[in-house]
Design goal:
By secondary structure, the chain is α/β, with parallel strands linked by helices. Strands 1-2-3-5-7-10 form a six-stranded mixed sheet, sandwiched between helices. The protein has a four-stranded mixed sheet with strand order 4-6-8-9. The termini are far apart. The protein has a single domain, classed as Alpha-Beta Complex (2-enoyl-CoA Hydratase, Chain A, domain 1). The mean pLDDT is 96. 49% of the residues lie in helices and 17% in strands. One of its GO terms (cellular component) is peroxisome. Its EC number is 5.3.3.8. Belongs to the enoyl-CoA hydratase/isomerase family. It catalyses: a (3Z)-enoyl-CoA = a 4-saturated (2E)-enoyl-CoA; a (3E)-enoyl-CoA = a 4-saturated (2E)-enoyl-CoA. Keywords: Isomerase, Lipid metabolism.
Length: 247
């Protein structure tokens, strides 16, 4: 599950779990709905100068879609087709999380203190800034290793966020497990830090610095969407025209 805490104008979205299994933060319909609810709450309370930080408990930022959940649905239905259908349903539901982050009227920062795999990597990359620990965790698009193609909006986000063709090839056609320093070099991560505590501190510093600018949230969201037209088109997000309030 997840929690949302508000500290002044900063929102802290934390992926939580009571057990080791839960702390993989696998994206199933329940967690996806919980994240979307938290983002909706942050959006409803946003003011100029707000910012969002996403972090997680345990050694995973997120281990991607919950394949065990899909398998359980298949077992209950007595059909592998039901399992495949449930996975595709999660792929479709997760579009909403990416769309929410790309249209959120505030800067967003992911504090990645553990592994971010597959949809978990996409979750991190859907933020404006990504900080990552070099002591623990990798970025990893695992789809090739499990024999699955990538959803179109995943590929569009990857094309929009990773500028080098060689780096994109490394991530999606080699299924490389990319550490923090290499991820910085590829432009996936903004900064690498020695410990989880340093990652979180850097995320808070960035959020506070950006918040001081007190930018219009509507203008910020509109410019972000215009920066990533391909993925926003696939997600059904339209550009917003925002004019200065003092005109």
């Amino acid at each position: 599950m997840c929690t949302l805490e508000k500290r002044g104008n900063l929102f802290i979205l934390k992926l939580t779990g009571d057990t080791k299994k839960d702390q993989e933060h696998r994206l199933n319909p329940t967690l996806i709905a919980s994240i979307r609810s938290a983002l909706a709450e942050a959006k409803s309370q946003a003011v100029n100068g707000s910012a969002l930080i996403t972090l997680s408990e345990g050694k995973f930022f997120s281990n991607g879609f919950d394949l065990r959940h899909a398998q359980a649905v298949g077992v209950k239905a007595g059909s592998t087709e039901a399992a495949k259908a449930e996975l595709l349903r999660m792929v479709d539901l997760f579009k909403g999380v990416v769309a929410d982050l790309l249209s959120l009227p505030m800067p967003t920062i992911a504090a990645v203190t553990g592994h971010a795999a597959a949809a978990g990597m996409i979750l991190a990359m859907s933020h404006d800034y990504v900080m990552m620990t070099s002591s623990r965790g990798v970025m990893y698009m695992s789809e090739l290793d499990i024999g699955m193609t990538l959803p179109d909006y995943f590929m569009a986000l990857i094309r929009g966020k990773i500028g080098s063709g060689a780096s994109r090839r490394e991530v999606v056609l080699k299924a490389a497990k990319v550490g923090a320093e290499a991820a910085v070099g590829m432009g996936i991560v903004d900064s690498a830090h020695c410990s989880s505590e340093e990652v979180v501190a850097a995320a808070f510093r960035t959020a506070e610095e950006l918040g001081k600018r007190r930018w219009s949230g509507a203008a910020y969201a509109g410019i972000r969407k215009a920066l990533h037209p391909e993925v926003c088109g696939l997600l059904g997000l339209k550009d917003d025209v925002v004019t200065p309030s003092k005109l």
